[in-house]
Specification:
Structural class: alpha/beta
Strand content: 5-15%
CATH topology of the largest domain: Rossmann fold
Distance between the termini: 24 Å
CATH superfamily of the largest domain: Glycogen Phosphorylase B
Number of domains: 2
CATH architecture of the largest domain: 3-Layer(aba) Sandwich
Order of helices and strands: EEHEHEHHEHEEHEHEHEHEHEHHH
Strand order of the largest sheet: 9-8-7-10-11-12
Radius of gyration: 22 Å
Length: 339
C-alpha cells in the first residue's frame, strides 16, 4: 500500500507529492495553475508506472482532482471519497464539472453520511455506485474509563466545550452569545473553545463586550482532544453547515452529551432527546435553553452520555467502518478481474 500526501508525512508508506516531481521543475510548481497541472500529471504518471491494483482518491480538491482526471482510462479501479466541502462548498462552474466528471467515472464513491451521499448524487446523477462509510471513532482511544470525567468531579465549575475550527461555518459566535445567557444562571460555568481560526479575534472582542471574557477560554490547537473533551459536561456544535459531525460522535463516545444544530448530517449522529439536543442554526437563544436544560439535570446528562456511547459503539466503531471499506475494496477489484 502507498499513501500519497500533499503535505510532508514522514511515515514509512507515505510519499510526499513534492518527492514525485522532478527537482528541476520545482519553481514551476509554485505557480498556482501551472503547479496544479504539473503535480497532477506526475502523480498520475507515478500511479500508472507502479501498476497499483486500486487507487483511492481521498480529496477532490487540487492535486487529487487533477490526478483523478489524468488517471481515468487506466486499468486499475478508482475509488473516490467525498468529505463535505468538496461537494457542498462553493466552487466555480469549471471545478464542479471536473468534480462531477471524476465522480461519474469512478468505480465506487463513498460518503461519510447519508446526507452527503444524497448531496453527492445531486451533483453527479450518473454515479456508478455510492456507499456510506462513516468517519468512525477509535473506541479504544475515546474510552471514558481512561479519563476523569466532569461527572466524577465535585465542587468544580460546569464545563462547556467547543471542538471545531473558529470559522463562520461552525457558528462559534452563536455559542459565545448563548454562553452569556447561560452564565447568568450558572455563575460557575466556563466555556472552552478548542481550535484555531480567523474568528478568534472577533470572538475575544465579543466575549469582552458581553462581560464574560474571564470565563471563556481559547485553548487553540490541542493534541490530547479526548482528555479535554472527556472533562466537559456538554459539547456544543452550533454549526451553520456540517456534512457529518466528527466532534459529535467523539463526544458521545466519551459519554458527554451534545447540543448541536440540526443541519446536514448532524441528525444522523446526534439523536435528539436521546444522546443530545438539536436546535435550529443561528439561534443563540435555543442553544442557551438547551445548555441550561442539561446543566440543570445531572441525571439527564448521565443518561444521554450512556446512550451516546452505546449509539456510537453500534454505528460508528472505527474498526467496523475500516472493515467495511476493506470489503468494498475487495468487491471492486474482484469485479474488475471478472470483467
Amino acid at each position: 500500500m502507498q499513501v500519497i500526501s500533499n503535505v510532508p508525512c514522514g511515515e514509512q508508506d507515505c510519499l510526499f507529492v513534492g518527492d514525485i516531481l522532478p527537482k528541476k521543475l520545482g519553481f514551476l510548481t509554485r505557480i498556482p495553475r501551472i503547479g496544479f497541472l504539473i503535480s497532477s500529471f506526475f502523480v498520475s504518471r507515478y500511479l500508472r508506472s507502479n501498476k497499483f491494483d486500486l487507487v483511492h482518491i481521498h480529496s477532490l480538491e487540487e492535486i487529487g482532482l487533477g490526478a483523478g482526471i489524468v488517471f481515468l482510462g487506466y486499468h486499475a479501479p478508482l475509488v473516490v471519497s467525498t468529505w463535505g466541502s468538496d461537494i457542498t462548498g462553493t466552487h466555480s462552474q469549471i471545478a464542479r464539472r471536473l468534480i462531477r466528471y471524476v465522480l461519474q467515472k469512478a468505480d465506487l464513491v463513498t460518503a461519510t453520511s447519508k446526507f452527503l451521499a444524497e448531496e453527492t448524487k445531486k451533483l453527479a446523477i450518473f454515479i456508478k455506485r455510492i456507499e456510506v462509510v462513516p468517519f468512525g471513532v477509535d473506541l479504544k482511544f475515546f474510552d471514558p474509563s481512561k479519563f476523569v470525567s466532569s461527572a466524577e468531579k465535585s465542587g468544580e465549575s460546569f464545563r462547556i466545550g467547543f471542538f471545531k475550527h473558529l470559522k463562520e461555518t461552525y457558528g462559534p459566535e452563536y455559542l459565545v452569545e448563548a454562553f452569556a445567557t447561560v452564565s447568568k444562571k450558572f455563575e460557575d460555568a466556563e466555556l472552552f473553545l478548542v481550535g484555531e481560526g480567523d474568528l478568534k479575534g472577533k470572538l475575544e472582542s465579543l466575549a469582552k463586550e458581553l462581560g464574560i471574557y474571564r470565563r471563556v477560554h481559547f485553548l487553540g490547537f490541542v493534541e490530547n482532544v479526548p482528555t479535554v473533551m472527556a472533562s466537559m459536561d456538554i459539547t456544543v456544535m452550533p454549526s451553520i453547515r456540517e456534512s457529518f459531525g466528527v466532534a459529535a460522535i467523539e463526544s458521545e463516545a466519551l459519554e458527554v452529551p451534545v447540543v448541536s444544530t440540526m443541519v446536514g448530517g448532524i441528525p444522523e449522529v446526534v439523536l435528539d432527546g436521546e444522546t443530545g439536543i438539536l436546535v435550529h442554526p443561528r439561534d443563540e437563544g435555543a442553544i442557551a435553553e438547551a445548555v441550561i436544560k442539561l446543566l440543570s439535570s445531572k441525571e439527564l446528562r448521565l443518561r444521554m452520555g450512556k446512550a451516546g456511547r452505546e449509539f456510537v459503539s453500534k454505528n460508528y466503531d472505527w474498526e467496523e467502518n475500516a472493515s467495511k471499506m476493506g470489503k468494498l475494496y475487495r468487491e471492486i477489484v474482484g469485479s474488475r478481474k471478472i470483467l
